[in-house]
Amino acid sequence: MGTLGGIAVIFDLDGTLVDSEPNYYEAGRRTLADHGVPDFTWADHESYVGVSTHETVVLWKRRYGLSAPVDELLDATNRHYLELARARTPVYPEMRTFVELLVAEGVPVAVASGSSPAAIEAILAGTGLDTHLRTVVSADEVARGKPAPDVFLEAARRLGAAPADCVVVEDAAPGAAAAHAAGMRCVAVPYVAAQADAPEFATAGLLLRGGQAEFTARTAYAWLLDAGAGAA
Question: Residue 226 needs a FRET pair 20 to 30 A away by CA distance; which of 8, 83, 198, 216 works?
Fold first, then answer.
């Protein structure tokens, strides 16, 4: 595929393409408040960044001793989240530019996310990203969420790409670990700046410690060109 040497790019969604973490925090805060946990903070939420919604509520149930079934907690959190996401989910401008640049160059692209299919669909449609990102995999569709590689391997399968030809764009340590486990290179854009030194990010081919403030479509594309030349 021209200068990019057959590379395919798989994007995480939350915290990578869109700044949805504030919505996830508020959805979780509402769910937990409804179940007797009134003091869930942003700092508490940060430890779940990059973890699928399903696995997050499993961890909540254990941590807070919740009596409600996992499915009930999951449904409530997804319901709160969809209400918030439909109202407002901002796209990172440089990420939108990067997606548009890749599509213009004919690079296969996909989304692989820990969110539910309904949440992914709502965000992509609401932001207009669905015009470009038509191959979508939710962790709900595979056996294991990140840091297991399943969601990225399924995205590669749907794109018809070998894992070694895929580059993952991620904001969270579990996602970087999942990319490494899948045998894929990774562009890491840490959402939580304090986690930039996490060992999972050490495996990234490109680590932008400053997160979205440091990311530019031009920088990422230039790195892809080098990666493509190396794979060719």
Answer: 198
206: tokens are 């490109």
Catalytic residue among 12, 14, 19, 165: 12
- Tell me the C-alpha to C-alpha distance, in Å, between residue 28 and each of 7, 9, 69, 78: 36, 30, 15, 9
Tokens of 131: 């015009």
Strands 8-11 and 166-170: parallel
pLDDT in tens, 89-118: 999 999 999 999 999 999 999 999 999 999
Question: For the chain, how many residues are written?
Answer: 232
Residue 150 annotated as catalytic: no
Please, which residues have CB within 8 angstroms of residue 107's CB and are 6 or more apart in sequence?
1, 4, 7, 8, 9
**Phi and psi of 66, rounded to 5°?**
-75, 140
Q: How many CB atoms lie within 10 A of CB 160?
A: 9
